[in-house]
Amino acid sequence: MEIAIRQDQGSHHLPCNRLFMGLLMLANAALPLSLSAAAWLPREMAVFELVNQQRAVNNLDPLRWDDRLHQSARRHSRSMAENNFFSHTNLTGSDGESFDDRVTGAGYDWRIGGENIAGGYGRSYPPAVPMEPLDAARHVLYGTIDLAEIDDFFSNPVSSWDDVGVGVTGSEWDAWQSHKMGENEGQGGWMGSQGHRDNILNGLFDDIGVGYVWEPDDIANILLDDGSFVDFPLHTYWTQVFASGDSPAPVPLPGAVWLLLSGLLSLILAGRPGGGISRPASGADFAAA
Fold first, then answer.
1. What's the confidence (pLDDT) of residue 249?
2. Which tens digit of pLDDT belongs to each residue from 218-233?
């Protein structure tokens, strides 16, 4: 993980332990919807909604999606997929482009920022088939699409997906991560990993962008920071970018329009079919940092 705090003279990076799941930095965003929502893929929108659900149950303001951060996130996911690497720094194809380069290049004048990345979540395997949007978002956030599995593990009853995270402490999420790794089913998603979870639940962030890319022809030997390789194809590449410092002024909407847009989004996400998707067979099918 890497945390970036922007200063007048540039950016200061604080090295932290790197997680093999997909994380990088910090950010901030609030308010649930924007008129530019059409530019976001359904899987990206679903992740955005689940992030704000987890922030709500932790008494945090919702993040606001930002098209510039979305551009940065999608660009990085596509770069990883097309250039066969998995890192917060572009290891091939873009001359070492960093988080700072991407967010600044997208036109966001950030003060503090963060990034989560993940690969292999949101698809069944084998064969490699993308999950439906809401299942894919749950998979990358929680490491499972099986609500009964979550209900069996956590002490608080979980009767619906809306209950996930309610009353769950950080140590319980850490135990979920250990459980998933012990079951050889990969990892417990971004919420199961402390560094990734800290970004999602960081109260300093205002804005978020989510980038998702599906690579049907993905191949093994995906380059990592230390020069080693992931020896299996990931197929899915996810990036979350968080930031604060350059939020645009909110555009007021008539109440009826706002309710209509919110209702449509809820219908889109809630109405997508779920079952019948098998989980990947082994923990080696996931990556995150």
1. 56
2. 999 999 989 999 999 9
Contact 139, 131 (CB under 8 A): yes
Q: How far is Cα 283 from Cα 117, in angstroms, rounded to an integer?
A: 17
- The label of the residue with tokens 């919110």 reads 262
Which segment, 95-99, 172-176, 272-276, is predicted with the most confidence on average? Answer: 172-176
Name all domains of the chain by residue range, CATH numbers in brackets: 2-288 (3.40.33.10)
Least confident of 1-10, 86-95, 133-142, 183-192: 1-10
Task: Please state the rounded mean pLDDT for residues 177-192.
Answer: 88
User: What pTM was estimated for this model as a whole?
Assistant: 0.77
Is residue 146 within 8 A of residue 276, CB to CB? The reply is: no
Write the DSSP string, 182-210: HTTS---HHHHSHHHHHHHT-TTBBEEEE
pLDDT confidence tier of residue 39, bands split at 50, 70 and 90: confident
Q: What are the DSSP calls for the chain, one per residue? A: -EEEEEETTEEEEEE----TT-B----B---S--TTGGGS-HHHHHHHHHHHHHHHHTT-PPPEE-HHHHHHHHHHHHHHHHHTB-SSS--SSSTT--HHHHHHHTT---SEEEEEEEES-SEETTTTEEPPHHHHHHHHHHS-S-HHHHHHHSSS---SGGGTTTT--HHHHHHHHHHHHHTTS---HHHHSHHHHHHHT-TTBBEEEEEEEE-TT--S-EE-TTS-EE-S---EEEEEEEEES-PPPPPP--HHHHHHHHHHHHHHHHTS---SPPPPSSGGG-EE-
Tokens standing for 285?
């099918």
What number of residues does the chain have?
Answer: 289
